[in-house]
Design goal:
The complex is a heterodimer of chains A (281) and B (289). By secondary structure, chain A is mostly helical. Chain A has a domain of 173 residues: MetI-like fold. In chain A, α7 packs antiparallel against α8. The N and C termini of chain A lie far apart (61 Å). Chain B is 74% helix and 3% strand. Chain B has 13 helices and 2 strands. The longest helix of chain B has 32 residues. In chain B, 42% of the residues are buried. Classes of the chains: A mainly alpha (281), B mainly alpha (289). The interface between A and B is large, with 91 and 90 residues.
Chain lengths: 281, 289
């Protein structure tokens, strides 16, 4: 009877944990197979343990080139999309203006469009305009699909923004530009930073839209796609595992940093309270 | 009274971003529409002949792939809901101090490339994989059968790849749920099941709909899962569009199919926005613009 009740109380948690295992299993497989020593060209069957490929992760030149190209592309995408998207978010949250609804639609619809349609439309456009496919067309496409996500992230940060801080700065004689630089931007920075990280991640991961608009340029996902026919080198697993570990560590660092900042704030608030209590007037 | 200059500020801020979206999203759609009505060939060039037969021909020729795409995407979204709801519920109500870690695990798949995740599934479902042996032992898969190159494998891949898009909006709406309503239900002697069916589920309906849209739309247009996990018998409409554009170079038909897919999805989206507003897709509920 007690066992039954325990089971009932924890059933949802159990299902949740099973679901998480389902989500994380493929990642574990990627990491495990980076230590595999495949007998043929295909790395699908476990043969034996080796650290050989971890010792030479960048031995395959086209793969390394593709990875570097993807990092460069993601870097410029993050800069472009973050600037355009942040300005858009500020306008949407801070101002009332004619055409707001249309602007919202223009931001939402690309997010809800299947990637294959975005890729096909851009290719149709570049073909009709006789625009040569390559790094530029990839950058244009990546900035385009990242803008909407930047807007959403920055917008949510702006909605919880205490505008009195800006008014205080203005009262103290700061010009609008100084206020923006010294008050708005620093407070907005975490949102802008996570938007930049998100667009970097979206860009480096994109396959479908790049597949349509890359021309002869090969990004990291495009390299994997091409290599699939002849067998994917184990280094792909090694690099994927590395990228995963780096991202996880970066995320954890951000979370720990935020925790510490929150704790400091709490402590400061506590001190303030004590101070008011201990001063008898 | 605002000066003209002040009134122009939002347009100045939005200008660059909106122009980018207009030039590289709206105008390309127009060009794709135009291309879909042209006839000709890659060598001889294309001419706008208002060839609406591109639509009728290609839709009737590829109706199977269209239907299959919507069928797979529908089943995958349903499975995502079935797996995602308990998961989101567990994170929101039962996880306690593990909440952040569990949320982190939900988005963790995004930190590895989409293609590599799909290839990992190929490893898991490969003929030599222990999972397949277990499935064969349990007689779920026939002794001489395969898991790869079946509808099941493609749907499993779609479900896996788009599950986070279901969990996140569900979690957001469960988190926002007013717990006092659940207590009120209990106080009025509702059983746990009644509380769930009559309070929790209806109040999280917006999250469910957003989650279904966010999984169904990308799944319906996907072609990666079929390439890695399926065979030619599992081809979805995305595969047809991709091969017509990039392999066969039959642009007008490809554009017509792509435009049709977009139109179908737009209809669903417009119905949704009519009821929920753009705000719900942008992550907040109050501002139904």
């Amino acid at each position: 009877m007690r066992a039954w009740r325990w089971l009932k109380e924890h059933a949802v948690l159990g299902v949740g944990i099973l679901a998480l295992i389902y989500m994380l299993a493929p990642i574990a497989i990627i990491a495990i197979f980076s230590f595999n020593d495949p007998s043929g060209r295909y790395n699908f069957e476990w043969v034996g343990f080796t650290t050989q490929y971890w010792q030479e992760p960048f031995a395959i030149e086209p793969l390394t080139d593709a990875l570097l190209l993807s990092i460069r592309l993601a870097f410029f995408t993050a800069i472009g999309a973050t600037i355009l998207g942040t300005l858009l978010a500020i306008a949407l949250v801070r101002y009332e203006f004619f055409g707001r609804r249309a602007a919202n639609l223009l931001i939402v619809i690309p997010m809800a469009t299947p990637e294959v349609v975005i890729g096909a439309a851009l290719l149709s456009f570049f073909l009709s305009a006789s625009f040569a496919l390559g790094f530029t067309t990839l950058l244009i496409a990546h900035i385009m699909f990242s803008i909407s996500f930047v807007v959403i992230v920055v917008r949510s940060r702006l909605i919880g923004f205490d505008r009195r801080l800006e008014e205080a700065a203005a009262d103290l004689g700061a010009s609008p530009v100084t206020t923006f630089r010294k008050v708005t931007l620093p407070l907005l920075a975490p949102g802008v930073a996570s938007a930049a990280m998100l667009s970097f991640a979206l860009s480096i991961d994109d396959f479908v839209i790049s597949n349509f608009n890359s021309g002869a340029v090969v990004t990291f996902p495009l390299y994997i796609f091409g290599a699939n026919q002849r067998g994917i080198p184990v280094q792909v697993n090694v690099i994927a595992t590395m990228l995963f570990a780096i991202t996880v560590m970066a995320m954890l660092a951000v979370i720990i940093q935020q925790r510490r900042a929150e704790k400091m704030q709490e402590r400061r608030a506590d001190d303030d309270n004590k101070a008011t209590v201990s001063v008898p007037i | 009274m605002k000066t003209l200059r002040q009134r122009l500020v939002p347009y100045g801020l939005m200008g660059p971003g909106l122009i980018w979206l207009f030039v590289f999203f709206v105008i390309p759609m127009y060009f794709m529409g135009q291309l879909s009505l042209k006839t000709g060939s890659l060598g001889a060039g294309y001419e706008l002949t208002w060839a609406f037969e591109n639509y009728t021909d290609s839709i009737s020729q590829y109706s199977d792939q269209f239907l299959r795409a919507f069928y797979y995407a529908g089943v995958a979204s349903f499975l995502c809901l079935l797996i995602g709801y308990p998961l989101a519920y567990a994170i929101a109500f039962k996880a306690g101090r593990w909440k952040n870690l569990m949320l982190f695990a939900v988005v963790a798949p995004f930190f590895t490339t989409y293609l590599i995740r799909t290839i990992a599934w190929k490893t898991l479902l490969d003929d030599t994989s222990p999972i397949v042996s277990v499935l064969k032992f349990l007689q779920i898969v026939p002794q001489d059968g395969r898991v790869l190159a079946t509808s099941g494998a493609v749907i499993a891949g779609l479900t896996y790849n788009f599950l986070p898009f279901m969990v996140l909006p569900l979690f957001a709406s469960l988190e926002r749920l007013d717990r006092r309503l659940l207590e009120a239900g209990k106080d009025l002697y509702a059983s746990a099941a009644q509380t769930f069916w009559r309070i929790t589920l209806p109040l999280t309906a917006p999250g469910i709909i957003a989650g279904v849209l966010l999984t169904f739309i990308p799944a319906a247009g996907d072609y990666v899962n079929v390439i890695f996990l399926g065979g030619t018998k599992q081809a979805m409409i995305g595969n047809v569009i991709q091969s017509k554009y990039l392999v066969v170079n039959d642009y007008p038909d490809a554009a017509a199919l792509s435009f049709t897919l977009m139109a179908i999805i737009l209809v669903a989206l417009i119905i949704y926005i009519k009821f929920a507003g753009t705000g719900a897709l942008m992550g907040d509920e109050e501002e139904a613009t």
